[in-house]
Amino acid sequence: MSKTLLIVHHTPSPHCHEMFEAVVSGATDPDIDGVDVLRRPALTVSPAELLAADGYVLGTPANLGYISGAMKHAFDCAYYQLLDSTRGRPFGVYLHGNEGTEGAERALAGITGGLGWEQAAATVTVSGKPTKEDLEACWNLGATVAAGLMI
């Protein structure tokens, strides 16, 4: 029986898109077996998709010191359905910010902590244009969370 990794993302900029593509590439590595990777924009992901997933990668810009409104919307629409139903599920996060990502990190830590999710990999934060090393970190993030679902 395969597991599902759900990548919920908001990718309004070329930099966010580069990071998203690297995460997807890592999560879909051919060496990772038995894990289906589902990609959904934060504005269109459904509560049912969030409930059905076995693990998550969350990607958002850090705008004005906070997560994107789209990412907040995704959780606002599914909060009560997810509460107590998804405890213990693994997740990872990647953030892009030009003015700092601390507020976005705190927001996602509060949301995922309240849901009882378990962080499976270190958060990847990038400012400005992603470097080769930043994109490798994103690839590793996707691969790590996906590979953890194989167990």
UniProtKB/TrEMBL annotation:
UniProt-recorded name of the protein: NAD(P)H-dependent oxidoreductase
Domain of life: Bacteria
UniProt source species: Mycolicibacterium iranicum
Domain called NADPH-dependent FMN reductase-like: residue spans: 49-116
One Pfam family here: FMN_red
InterPro entries hit by this protein: Flavoprotein-like_sf, FMN_Rdtase-like_dom
